[in-house]
Amino acid sequence: MTLRRFMWLFLAFALGAFALAAAGRFLLDWPDNVVGMWAGIGAGNLLGCLLFLLTPRWWRSHCDDMYAQPAGRRYLRALWPALVGYTLTLFASIFLVKRGIESVPLRGLVAVLPVLPIGMMMLAALRYLREIDELQRRIETDAIGVASLLVSLLYFAGGMLQKAKVIELDAGVAMIWVFPLLCVTYGIAKMIVTRRYL
Question: Which of 47, 52, 77, 165 is the most buried (most CB within 10 A)?
Fold first, then answer.
């Protein structure tokens, strides 16, 4: 699958989410938080679409070649259901927890629902890492290492600044953003590392 197709998928998801938000607001009388959730999903997908437009041509070409190989195709086939599952379980979990669940074990189970699709993504990434050639594996591991170090340093610095009462962070929100920040940092690091090797 080419990056151009990814861009169109993100645009389709964005338009669908915005349509649901509009229908919820004007036709179905949904609560504001549900309308806001779908608007947020739409905005996130629209941002993803715009990021695809801003990527350099050499990067798009490299990704198209990489995902045209059998390992890349298998990775994408495993990744898409996990990404959709993550999005749906994340918002379902937040919505249900905010509505209130009396049972603590059930509330805990609902709260960690998004962990399952994240685990599926990680398994797909590990399988992909085992199946690619040595140069691509080197690029991937370098990018993963750089992203892990940068996010760790950022969170360590944030923790120290919070302890010193320089900033005030909600720990729950900060923890939720670890995985998305790691993914974004990995993507940027991979682009820089790939440019160095190609």
Answer: 52
Q: Scan for tokens 């760790």, then name that residue.
A: 152
pLDDT, one tens digit per residue, over 58-95 is 888 888 888 889 999 999 999 989 988 988 898 889 88
Query: How far apart are the C-alpha atoms of 112 and 176, rounded to whole Å?
Result: 11
The span from the CA of 182 to the CA of 186, in Å, is: 6
Q: In whole angstroms, give the CA distance from residue 13 to residue 22.
A: 14
Q: What is the pTM of this model?
A: 0.81
- Could you give the angle at the alpha carbon of 50 between the alpha carbons of 59 and 192, nearest 5°? 30
State how far the Cα of 16 lies from the Cα of 7, in Å rounded to an integer.
Answer: 14
Domain boundaries, the chain: 1-68, 71-132, 134-198
Check: CB of residue 110 under 8 Å from CB of residue 101. Answer: yes
Q: Is 25 exposed, middle or buried (0-12, 13-18, 19+ CB in 10 A)?
A: middle
Per-residue burial over 137-175, b if 16 or more Cβ lie within 10 Å, else e, is eebbebbbebbeebbeeebeeeeeeeeeeeeeeeeeeee
Place of tokens 């990995």: 186
Length of the chain: 198
